[in-house]
Design goal:
By secondary structure, this protein is of the alpha+beta class. It contains 13 helices and 19 strands. A hairpin with a 4-residue loop joins β5 and β6. The radius of gyration is 22 Å and the shape is globular. It binds flavin-adenine dinucleotide. The site of flavin-adenine dinucleotide has 36 residues, from β3, α5 and β10.
């Protein structure tokens, strides 16, 4: 294949399509979940590996910035670029399930919901996160903490191999035997090392879960009791506990909308009777305002979602945004619960959340040095968010988020890379502490010495 050095040449080479600002659907194709003003020179909807190789070659030859888009949910808006070119993986959606071996090869353009639905046909699961529209590529490469994390570990703990195209345009497979250092780095190190084309997952049998949404009033006492129940729960149970103002949920009486609630997303990965028993301590915390917890299939945990907004207000500075910070901490006891409830009362953001996830179980049984996700022994992950509208409000909400996060942080300043926004290099270092960073830098220097793949939480090979 000759190297394309103009967009016209590249367009002629691709089996997929190349959209530029002149195309009528460019606006729609450039959109990513967190919006933004970034306008790539071209979006390449790649149709196969050759297309990926061609775009990589073009980007290198022309020194054009390259971004790679999976599900487009990067909080740091890394899956697009201003003036560069995007490899958009969304048309690559093959999945091959081997029910006997309990493995699946899944293309990197699939979303979590698409994979969940396919695996459910075989009563099999792989845990991604809490949102179906998230791309399997971004969540897998960053780690993957979801409804099955305590029972089956992180997504990367169930990853057997990754096929990827390197900066040299070579298609390679990384697994325990082939390119083992790269395989280590791909399990948590993000999109730093190449364009992943497909992933091989080890699957678990799980015909049914008990789970869903449980809403209860939030006070210092109920939050503490809820978190104590989450700590004491069997490891089949993973809980995502949002302390927030009640959204207008149709299954919660209108009089409670806007009041401070525990909005919990619960999943028990096991037999129905044991699941019902495991839910009892949560239901006992307070009279539920809404209770949708029931036996269901795993994909039913993921309600349908809206896509990214396609229309923006005339004044783009007034597009709502989210200030957010992620951290790890020790168990959330009565003092921390009181603090959370008090601080949520201080903010006037229409949507402000302290999200609490008790970790442990299978996730904690993997050695910290076994993958590029090193925070195996941390107890609770906290995500603090506040919605803002406009630049002045943003400063206020960012300060509120920062203060609450600082008040809750215990132990080290570690961070989970998939929830880190565009927060500067020191936060990337916080995601990859100590020896993890050194090892990642060595793998980066070997596979991408020119830092072609830098639209990510970047590990600079020159650093
Ligand atoms: C609403 C929402 C809910 C979430 N819930 C969870 C959760 O419960 N648990 C959790 O662990 N995380 C969660 N996340 C975080 C999520 O895992 C990350 O944002 C993830 O990176 C998104 O992946 P993506 O493919 O959708 O994103 P993208 O924006 O497409 O990509 C994210 C990063 O991965 C790189 N990348 C994408 N595809 C490839 C590829 N094929 N090869 C190489 N690099 C690639 C991109 O360049 C970018 O740097 C959530 C995010 C959102 C917005």
């Amino acid at each position: 294949m000759t190297l394309a050095t103009t967009l016209e040449e590249l367009r002629a080479q691709l089996a997929g399509r190349l959209a530029t600002p002149a195309d009528p659907d460019y606006e729609q194709l450039r959109a990513v979940f967190y919006g933004g003003d970034l306008r790539p020179a071209a979006v390449a909807r790649v149709a196969n590996v050759d297309d990926i190789v061609a775009v990589i070659g073009f980007a290198r030859a022309t020194e054009t910035e390259l971004a790679v888009r999976g599900g487009g949910h990067s909080g740091a808006v890394h899956s697009t670029t201003d003036g560069g070119i995007v490899i958009d993986m969304r048309d690559l959606k093959r999945i091959e399930v081997d029910p006997e071996a309990r493995t699946a090869w899944a293309d990197a353009g699939l979303t979590a919901a698409e994979v969940n639905a396919k695996l459910a046909e075989h009563g099999l699961v792989i845990g991604f996160g809490d949102t179906g529209t998230v791309g399997i590529a971004g969540i897998t490469l960053g780690g993957g903490v979801g409804y099955l994390v305590r029972k089956f570990g992180m997504t990367i703990d169930n990853l057997e191999a990754v096929e990827l195209v390197t900066a040299d345009g070579e298609l390679i497979t990384a697994d325990a035997e082939r390119h083992p250092d790269l395989f280590w780095a791909l399990r948590g190190g993000g999109g730093n090392f190449g364009v992943a084309t497909r992933f091989k997952y080890r699957l678990n049998e799980l015909p049914q879960v008990t789970g869903g949404m449980l809403v209860q009033p939030a006070t210092a006492e109920t939050v503490a009791a809820f978190m104590a129940a989450a700590e004491a729960a069997p490891e089949e149970l993973s809980a995502i506990v949002n302390v927030m103002n009640c959204p207008p949920l149709p299954f919660v009486a209108e009089e409670h909308h806007g009041s401070l609630v525990i909005f919990a997303l619960l999943c028990f990965a096991g037999e129905t009777d044991a699941g019902e028993a495991a839910m009892a301590p949560f239901r006992a915390v307070a009279e539920p305002l809404g209770d949708l917890v029931r036996p269901m299939t795993y994909p039913e945990l993921f309600p349908p979602e809206e896509g990214p907004p396609t229309e923006e207000p005339a004044d783009s500075s007034m597009v709502p945004g989210f200030a957010g910070l992620t951290l790890f901490t020790d168990p959330i006891g009565p003092d921390e619960s009181a603090l959370i409830v008090e601080r949520l009362g201080w903010s006037d953001s229409p949507m402000r959340v302290a999200q609490l996830r008790v970790l442990g179980g299978a996730m904690a049984r993997v050695a910290p040095e076994a993958t590029a996700f090193a925070h195996r022994q941390r107890h609770v992950m906290v995500n603090v968010w506040a919605m803002y509208v406009g630049p002045t409000d943003r400063v206020v909400k960012e300060a509120w988020v920062r203060d609450l996060a600082a008040a809750l942080r215990r132990g080290d300043d570690g961070a989970y890379v998939n929830f880190v926004n565009d927060e500067g290099p020191e936060r990337v270092r916080a995601a990859y502490p100590g020896a993890t960073w050194d090892r990642l830098a060595a793998v980066k220097a070997r596979y991408d010495p020119g830092n072609l793949f830098h639209r990510n939480h970047n590990i600079d090979p020159a650093a």
